[in-house]
């Protein structure tokens, strides 16, 4: 598990079902669930975490696939990024597949899971802005076979929390059958952690645009006013791609200003406070990503 023996867990349990995993966590409150372990093992090897016990989720087949359910896709929390990046999944949820393919090098994509991305709640988690834009929900398994459902955004914001013995079992995603895109910027060439990411989802049935920005805050941000503004300018009954390019540019700037706002004016009436250069660069990056994401969705 790790080359640092003092940090090794004393007990490793390998349940075969979701309810068995919940029972193991209930019986061992100090145990830590682990699927791909891409974030967990980094914390262990850096000395930030020393779990007394581990509950491995790799043998639970029910959470490693997906199925259709009432106009939604029910995704197992154990789906790996590599599996979500395949063409058959991309035909189902294109933006989530794009995020999965951008999640890092092959060794990360082969091990990292959808549920791990949600529970770790790292600001740079690539799947998180897509799930926020899709308004996905999670199905949480609890003791004695209980199940409850809550929006992913509530879990990420801390409005709802996992209780003792609870596990994220599935993610319910609406199947919109409409254009959706995911783009991200990194600090270097090739796969890497996002400095900013944007997901844009069109919802023709509701004549709406949903956008979420990741990596610039502790959780994905939804610029709701920008969404409503650009949705009102789209010709939903005609050629959506005929939107004036200046509108896409204005949308990008609107999104960026909402997510990285100007500082509050100085209370003493002194010199106006401006964003530092790094924040201005990040705002320009978000604006460019949002503009391109909207353009690709409309195209």
Automatic annotation (TrEMBL):
Source superkingdom: Bacteria
Tell me which InterPro entries the record gives.
CO_DH_flav_C_dom_sf (IPR036683), Diverse_Substr_Oxidored (IPR051312), FAD-bd_PCMH (IPR016166), FAD-bd_PCMH-like_sf (IPR036318), FAD-bd_PCMH_sub1 (IPR016167), FAD-bd_PCMH_sub2 (IPR016169), Mopterin_DH_FAD-bd (IPR002346)
Where is each FAD-binding PCMH-type domain found? Answer: 4-178
Query: What UniProt keywords apply to this chain's record, in alphabetical order?
Result: FAD, Flavoprotein, Oxidoreductase
Task: Name the Pfam families for this protein.
Answer: FAD_binding_5 (PF00941)
Cite the PANTHER family for this sequence.
Answer: XANTHINE DEHYDROGENASE SUBUNIT C-RELATED
Q: Under what name is this protein listed?
A: FAD binding domain-containing protein
């Amino acid at each position: 598990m790790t080359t640092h023996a003092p940090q090794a867990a004393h007990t490793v349990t390998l349940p075969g079902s979701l309810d068995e995993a919940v029972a193991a966590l209930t019986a061992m409150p100090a145990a830590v669930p682990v699927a791909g372990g891409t974030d967990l093992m980094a914390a262990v090897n850096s000395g930030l975490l020393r779990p007394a016990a581990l509950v491995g989720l790799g043998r639970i087949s029910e959470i490693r696939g997906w199925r259709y359910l009432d106009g939604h896709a029910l995704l197992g929390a154990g789906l790996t990024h590599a599996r979500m990046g395949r063409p058959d999944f991309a035909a189902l949820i294109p933006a989530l597949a794009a995020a999965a393919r951008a999640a890092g090098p092959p060794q990360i994509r082969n091990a990292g899971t959808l549920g791990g991305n949600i529970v770790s709640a790292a600001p740079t988690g690539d799947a998180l802005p897509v799930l926020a834009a899709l308004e996905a929900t999670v199905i949480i398994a609890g003791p004695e076979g209980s199940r409850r459902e809550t929006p992913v955004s509530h879990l990420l914001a801390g409005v709802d929390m996992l209780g003792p013995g609870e596990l994220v079992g599935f993610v319910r995603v609406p199947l919109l059958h409409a254009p959706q895109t995911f783009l991200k910027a990194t600090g270097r060439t090739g796969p890497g952690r996002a400095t900013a990411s944007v997901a844009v989802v069109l919802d023709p049935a509701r004549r709406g645009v949903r956008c979420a920005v990741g990596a610039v805050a502790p959780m994905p941000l939804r610029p709701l006013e920008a969404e409503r503004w650009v949705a009102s300018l789209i010709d939903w009954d005609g050629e959506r791609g005929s939107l004036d390019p200046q509108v896409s540019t204005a949308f990008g700037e609107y999104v960026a200003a909402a997510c990285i706002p100007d500082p509050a004016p100085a209370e003493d009436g002194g010199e106006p406070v401006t964003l530092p250069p790094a924040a201005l660069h990040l705002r320009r990056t978000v604006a460019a990503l949002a503009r391109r994401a909207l353009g690709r969705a409309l195209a």
